[in-house]
Design a protein that fits this description.
14 strands; globular; six-stranded antiparallel β-sheet
Length: about 260
C-alpha cells in the first residue's frame, strides 16, 4: 500500500527530516544530496509493478491512496474499504474482530478495514472513549492508514507487537508518504524517513502519540544509516516525561481536541 499526503494536510514531526549530512559533521567529507523521484513517479511505479493495483486521489491530489491486493498465499491480510467518504487500508488481522463487530453493532461479515472505519466514525462523532483506549482494545498485528475526505483528516496506527511494518517519510516536495514498502519510501524521501513507531497513532489534527502509553511523551531518537548519514528519527516513549492526562471524550468535546500533545 502507499499513501501520499500534501504537506498542508499532514504535518509530520520535523525530526523526520534529514540534514543529508554525515553523523558528526566531518568537515572534509563531500556530501551529495541523495537522488529523489517525485511521489507521482513512485505512484506510477507502484501501479505498474502490481497488475491489480488501483489508486484514488482526492481534493486536487491533496491525498492519494494506492492499494494492491495480496498474492495468495500471503502471510498478512491486506484490505481496502470505503464507507461514507472514509477510506481505509488495513494490513494484518485482528484476533478479536468478531467481538469488536458485535460491540460496534456491525455485521459478522465485516472485515478489519470496515471495523476501523466504524471505530473512527465513533471517535470522530464524539464517542464515549478516547482514541488510545479504542486502539488498546484491538488484539492482533495490524497497521492502517485512514483518510476522511470530508473532514480532510488522516488517521494512522501500528500495533505494538512488530508483526506489521510501516514506514513514513518526507518527500522532496514536502509531502508525507507512508507505505509498507521501504523501497518506495526511500525513492522519494531519500534519508528523510523512519519506521512508523509501533504502539503509536497519528492524527493530522492531533499529531503523534503512543496509544500504549498515552500519558508519556514521545522522544525523537537520531538515526544513522550504514554509511554514517543522518536519517529521519525514530520515536520512542519517554518514560521520564509525562503529557497532560487523557480526558474521556464526551458529547461536548471533539475527540481530536483531546488527543494529547504532539511528539
Amino acid at each position: 500500500m502507499l499513501g501520499i499526503f500534501n504537506k498542508d494536510l499532514v504535518n509530520a514531526p520535523k525530526e523526520l527530516n534529514s540534514p543529508h549530512a554525515p553523523a558528526g559533521g566531518h568537515p572534509h567529507r563531500v556530501v551529495e544530496k541523495p537522488k529523489q523521484i517525485v511521489p507521482e513517479e513512485c505512484l506510477k511505479g507502484f501501479l505498474s509493478t502490481h497488475p491489480n493495483a488501483f489508486s484514488l486521489s482526492f481534493a486536487k491530489n491533496a491525498a492519494t491512496l494506492a492499494f494492491a491486493p495480496p498474492p495468495n498465499p500471503y502471510p498478512n491480510n491486506r484490505l481496502f474499504s470505503g464507507v461514507d467518504d472514509i477510506y481505509c487500508t488495513f494490513l494484518g488481522s485482528l484476533n478479536n474482530l468478531s467481538s469488536l463487530n458485535k460491540q460496534y453493532g456491525l455485521s459478522k461479515c465485516g472485515n478489519e478495514a470496515m471495523f476501523v472505519i466504524e471505530a473512527y466514525r465513533t471517535l470522530r462523532d464524539r464517542g464515549p472513549y478516547p482514541a488510545h483506549q479504542v486502539l488498546k482494545d484491538l488484539e492482533g498485528s495490524f497497521g492502517f492508514v485512514l483518510y476522511d475526505t470530508k473532514a480532510k483528516t488522516v488517521f494512522i496506527s501500528l500495533s505494538a507487537d512488530g508483526g506489521v511494518n510501516l514506514f513514513w517519510g518526507i518527500a522532496s516536495d514536502g509531502s508525507v508518504m507512508i507505505s509498507d514498502n521501504l523501497d518506495l519510501i526511500k525513492a522519494s524521501c531519500a534519508k528523510s524517513f523512519a519506521p512508523f513507531p509501533t504502539g503509536c497513532m497519528y492524527h493530522s489534527e492531533g499529531g503523534l502519540m503512543s496509544f500504549e502509553h498515552p500519558t508519556n511523551k514521545l522522544k525523537a531518537m537520531p538515526r544513522v544509516d550504514s554509511e554514517g548519514f543522518m536519517c529521519g528519527s525514530n520515536f520512542k516513549v519517554d518514560v521520564y516525561s509525562k503529557t497532560k492526562s487523557m480526558p474521556r471524550v464526551g458529547s461536548e468535546a471533539n475527540w481530536a481536541d483531546s488527543w494529547g500533545q504532539e511528539a
